[in-house]
Amino acid sequence: MPPPPPPQSSSSGGSPPPLKSKEKFLSLILKAVIMMLLMCFFFLILPLASFFLILPLVLRHRHHRQRQHSHPSSGFSSKQLKKLPQFRFSQETKSAHSKSDSCAICLDGFRQGQWCRNLVGCGHLFHRKCLDSWLIKVTSCPICRTRVLLEKEDRCTLDSGSRRTDFQGLLDL
Fold first, then answer.
1. 0.85 cut: is pTM over it?
2. What residues make up the domain containing 23?
3. Which residues of 105-117 are buried (b: 16+ CB within 10 A; e: fewer)?
4. What does R_g of the chain's alpha carbons equal in angstroms?
5. Which of 25, 128, 139, 146 could cross-link to 121 by cystine, CB 3.0-4.6 Å?
6. Could you tell me if 88 and 136 lie in one domain?
């Protein structure tokens, strides 16, 4: 048997091992370039995507604020509140309103000499300050949601359908 051929040196024309290291190096560079492109794509697309996701929320908020400025309050003005009837609480009024011992807004009892209001439409009794702070926001009774009428308003409007259900009154809040 003949002896195996001696190993060839790199200078003799065989395939040199540095080619494999060049392929590995190019592969690493290619992977790095691809990773950089993916990261750039991610960091460019992420702000755009978030912008388009948040845009409807911002527009809805802006629309809501514009509606609030065009209709700042659905309640009475202080000038209108002065037109509502008021009286000082006494023993005579206590007997007339025996069903209500306390204000339904602040839950404090009625005392002699306190200013009160008795709503015309429904007959509920409240402290004047409590009811006025409520009526600035909402023009209905805090208990039954009946629309509060001013003195000069025609009382027949109460009978003609301005009385609200509990659900409709909740929409005023």
1. no
2. 19-70
3. eeeeebeeebebb
4. 41
5. 146
6. yes
